[in-house]
Inverse folding.
């Protein structure tokens, strides 16, 4: 072993034959080699503490032989990560193979020995095993920069530490670059898939339009309506009260009902979570960006039957889980749930105040709630029958009193919701129309309402079903029944008078929604309903029920229609089927 220039003069260490000739005792080879191509970079050496200077060898023959490996300065053999000759250090910071240090202690014949390089005393217990793996930084798969664990041991120069920091930054940047490249590739693939889906959906839409056109041509009733629409366009196209422009179209899965907040440009649509689960979700759609957010509902909510968005940033929805729920439109969280005595079928709230909300139940009851009270309903009102209240509208009459207009299968009713009367009044003149399946109301005054009916089906004596005939109501085809729409105008705060009726294709099973659209400065109105023969929306002018226009059809029947007007006067009509949501902008003439 080489003698140290600053070692103890009392005892000199024995010579070691393996020492490399000409190697200075004051230097420690860093064991740093950079494999760039076929040539190695110069080996950096660190001189002893007394000199504090760094020298750089030219490389010579050693460079020609390739990069040097980190080795023990005693035996000049490479140290290992484990075993007898594993890399170790002593308190002064110099690094050796452990077996060389132990042999040096044995040769000294005492419990202590001096460092061969600096002469500082150490003991057997001072020998520390080092654990530091080799680090490899790839450079475009053509270069590899290798540096040993000695760089982390504190025995390198300032330049060496800067090199370590630089290598770490290179490694971090290359990792980030790889991550960004992977993300870019995924986005490219997603864009291709979206384009493919759009192309497929457009193809399906074109096919659906062609089929619906053929079905309309085969229906004599549809042909007559189409002729009246053409005649209206030819005779008075410039006098049209408004126009419809398709603003957005969204593809959904399993949608049923929806609500529109025109001022905030937000749409809520109910649906079922993807997969085989029975979890129900709300899809929150931003009409500006088209961004969709899934809001998962509590398991006890079950299927939603109606959605209403009220002022104050709240959405109300009634569900078959016997719950009336309040959703914060800001946080997308359920802030409260009212327990209902029966499954909820409909809900409503006043647009000029967020406090009172109303729920129509499956057993025919109507419940009044105050959002400032979270325990129970203010009023529980009993209906005229035990049939589900499938539609309710909260309105303000000409005297300023709040009323609720509802519909069940027996027909439209009007309720006093202040608790003065426990039961509603059935609107007169609707008794013989059939089964009421929809009710549209011209809010907020509700001076006009349109109720939709389908023919009644009764059981004969022998148990078979027989059709109760109503005026012009034969069975059309598998596309639905020929029902009727009845227009009623307000006569007083509690009564309406029937003005006009119109035949139309209605569902045999579904209780679909309809809408009244104010236009031309609210001086004229349109009535919109989902026509079963078209799987689309057909509109009529009121009060004449003159056919106005047919909107772009869907592949499935229309399940919900919602008209909404923003605080700045922008008007929208939402049309929902099981797989698609269309939003039309309504422009007055």
């Amino acid at each position: 072993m080489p003698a140290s220039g600053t070692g103890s003069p009392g005892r000199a260490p024995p010579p070691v034959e393996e020492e490399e000739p000409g190697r200075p005792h004051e230097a420690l080879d860093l064991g740093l080699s950079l494999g760039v191509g076929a040539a190695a970079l110069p080996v950096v050496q660190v001189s002893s503490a007394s000199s504090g200077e760094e020298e750089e060898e030219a490389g010579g023959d050693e460079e020609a032989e390739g990069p040097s490996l980190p080795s023990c300065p005693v035996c000049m053999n490479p140290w290992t990560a484990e075993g007898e000759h594993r890399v170790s250090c002593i308190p002064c910071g110099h690094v050796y193979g452990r077996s060389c240090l132990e042999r040096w202690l044995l040769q000294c014949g005492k419990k202590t020995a001096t460092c061969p390089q600096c002469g500082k005393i150490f003991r057997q217990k001072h020998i520390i095993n080092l654990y530091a793996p080799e680090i490899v930084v790839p450079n475009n798969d053509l270069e590899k920069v290798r540096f040993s664990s000695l760089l982390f041991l504190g025995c390198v120069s300032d330049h060496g530490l800067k090199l370590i920091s630089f290598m770490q930054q290179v490694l971090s940047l290359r990792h980030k670059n790889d991550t960004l490249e992977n993300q870019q590739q995924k986005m490219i693939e997603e864009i291709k898939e979206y384009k493919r889906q759009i192309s497929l959906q457009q193809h399906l839409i074109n096919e659906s339009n062609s089929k619906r056109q053929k079905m309309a041509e085969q229906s004599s009733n549809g042909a007559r309506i189409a002729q009246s629409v053409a005649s209206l366009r030819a005779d008075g196209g410039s006098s049209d009260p408004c126009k419809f422009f398709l603003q957005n179209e969204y593809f959904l899965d399993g949608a049923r009902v929806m609500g529109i907040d025109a001022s905030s440009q937000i749409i809520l649509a109910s649906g079922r979570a993807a997969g085989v689960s029975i979890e129900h979700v709300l899809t929150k759609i931003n009409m500006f960006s088209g961004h969709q957010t899934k809001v998962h509902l509590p398991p006890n909510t079950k299927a939603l039957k109606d959605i209403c968005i009220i002022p104050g940033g709240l959405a109300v929805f009634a569900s078959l889980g016997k719950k009336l729920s309040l959703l914060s439109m800001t946080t997308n969280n359920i802030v409260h749930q009212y327990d209902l005595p029966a499954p909820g079928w409909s809900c409503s709230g006043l647009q000029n105040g967020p406090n009172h909300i109303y729920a129509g139940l499956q057993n025919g009851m109507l419940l009044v709630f105050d959002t400032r009270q979270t325990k129970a309903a203010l009023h529980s009102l009993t209906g005229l029958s035990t049939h589900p209240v499938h539609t309710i509208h909260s309105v303000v009459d000409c005297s300023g009193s709040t009323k609720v207009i509802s519909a069940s299968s027996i027909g439209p009713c009007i309720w006093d919701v202040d608790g003065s009367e426990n039961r509603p009044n059935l609107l007169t003149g609707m008794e013989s129309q059939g089964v009421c399946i929809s009710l549209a109301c011209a809010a907020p005054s509700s001076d006009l309402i349109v109720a939709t009916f389908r023919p009644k089906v009764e059981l004969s004596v022998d148990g078979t079903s027989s059709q109760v005939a109503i005026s012009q109501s034969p069975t059309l085809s598998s596309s639905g029944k020929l029902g009727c729409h009845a227009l009623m105008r307000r006569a007083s705060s509690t009564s309406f008078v029937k003005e006009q009726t119109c035949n139309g294709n209605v569902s045999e099973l579904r209780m679909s929604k309809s809408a009244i659209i104010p236009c031309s400065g609210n001086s004229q109105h349109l009535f919109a309903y989902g026509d079963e023969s078209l799987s689309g929306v057909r509109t009529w002018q009121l009060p004449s029920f003159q056919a106005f226009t047919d909107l772009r059809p869907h592949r499935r029947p229309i399940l919900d229609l919602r008209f909404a007007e923003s605080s700045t006067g922008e008007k929208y009509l939402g049309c929902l089927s099981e797989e698609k949501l269309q939003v039309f902008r309504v422009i007055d003439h």
